[in-house]
Amino acid sequence: MAKLVIFFLFKLFLLCSLPRSNAVYNILNYGAKADGQTDSAQPLLKAWAAACHSSSPATIHVPAGSFLLSQAIFNGPCKNTEIKFSIEGTIISPSYYGKLGDSREWIAFNNVEGVTIRGGNLDGRGGALWTCKFDGRSCPTGAISLTFSNSKNIMIDGVTSINSELFHIAIVGCQGVRIQGVYILASGNSPNTDGIHVQMSTGVSIVRANIKTGDDCISVGPGTSHLWIERVFCGPGHGISIGSLGKLGDGLQVKGVQNVTAKSVMFADTQNGFRIKTWGTNARGYVKGVAFANAMMRNVQNPIIIDQNYCPGNQNCPGQNSGIEISRVNYKNIRGTSATKVAVNFDCSPSNPCNGIRLKDIKLTYQNRQAWSYCKHAYGIATGFVIPTSCL
Ligand SMILES: *[C@@H]1O[C@H](CO)[C@@H](O)[C@H](O)[C@H]1NC(C)=O
């Protein structure tokens, strides 16, 4: 009892002696205007500098309204490990895509720790750039709407991203990232507008995301480990994709992907469901320890697919023989409809067959008819009911 009392007194002492004042930096006080025309780059960067140099928790507030932003790169390291952006309004990118050009980043954080982004709309206004790309004119690459690189303990909560020029959100070289309640929206035929891209990162979780876009809903690049994906709606889009790994020109050694879980996912009218994709090149690496579970597919072209022979245009992929080893991939409780005859497709590498594939409780049909499985260099087991019949 005495111990308990002392413990509480101690806590009280901590609370009283270390008041964690939460300073609020409203960007209007730094010259921002909610008129959709005045560039808020300087106001945002000034508010950031103030928050970054302070050692008590800071909130950067973007009130309601429309804020034009040319580009903002928020660099650390900061003294502060508790910086929150609370966004009520919409941040819009320059209307002319040439402004961001090949810069690849619109809003980016580099080398920061303990940053939260809560709420708000990010409007990348990518439409004109997509049209340029469709027309085959010479166009700039464009910019990812929101990037975190080399950062730690990041939270992206309740953010809406629409019409990004390139990816909507990219997480690169980070540790401990939680992305929750995000809404991502771009046209189903917009090029390279991946919803969330994760690469060279560990301990990333993506929960409760609603993603409608033109490329992968979630794409997983090299060097990703301990990734958790749960309760995602995907469609239109290209599904949840590990890869492509071993891209021609990316070197002979690829950082591996391991321990990826994706569960409770709904795919509607997507190109793929769960996909693992490697180039048909001799780059070496691995994908191991993947769990895909509890998914509903509606009219999905390739509900379950491993493609180790990716070689766009069939150009210069030496030997068409992937050096990426794929092992321990679990598919469990996946149901629904395939938009093509082959619902389960394991097209693995002759020199590195897929090993330890497990299928359990699968039911995929093709227009109320029987669907098919295709296996090439793929080994593993099927248990429970598996429709279409496993070819492992
Ligand atoms: C796999 O990753 C999850 C987080 O997604 C983590 O909780 C778990 O401990 C990891 N498992 C292993 C074996 O590292």
UniProtKB/TrEMBL annotation:
Coiled coil: none annotated. GO terms for molecular function: galacturan 1,4-alpha-galacturonidase activity; polygalacturonase activity. It catalyses: [(1->4)-alpha-D-galacturonosyl](n) + H2O = alpha-D-galacturonate + [(1->4)-alpha-D-galacturonosyl](n-1). Pfam families: Glyco_hydro_28. Its EC number is 3.2.1.67. GO terms for biological process: carbohydrate metabolic process; cell wall organization. The active site is at H238. Keywords: Cell wall, Cell wall biogenesis/degradation, Glycosidase, Hydrolase, Secreted, Signal. Its main location: secreted. Belongs to the glycosyl hydrolase 28 family. PANTHER family: PTHR31375. May function in depolymerizing pectin during pollen development, germination, and tube growth. Acts as an exo-polygalacturonase. This is Exopolygalacturonase. It comes from Cocos nucifera (Coconut palm).
